[in-house]
Amino acid sequence: GFNIAHDDGFLAVYNAKWTHIEEGQSSVIEFDFGDARFAGEAQAQFLDGTPGGRAHFNNPAFVEAFARKNTVQVKGSKGATFEIVLKGTQKAITALRECQNAQSGDGDDTE
Q: What is the value of pTM for the model shown?
């Protein structure tokens, strides 16, 4: 989820194979976009019984890297690494920005 107007949001990922996750546990997670890296704290949680985690971010450069790259390598504090395919994120973030601008009145081009 993104709040483009405030340059913050969260990334949540869930996987039934992550049986070691305990609700409420927190750990450091790293996002490697190849030419940009970000790290932060992720909070373990379950969604409909599926384990996963949610990481908050407030760095606009994260959104830009997320939008323009095709994949991101995610590494957990215990060394587990996986790749997320980001196909379509540029279009999605552009549409989200347009929608949020229209709702806030910032995108009014009728002047």
A: 0.76
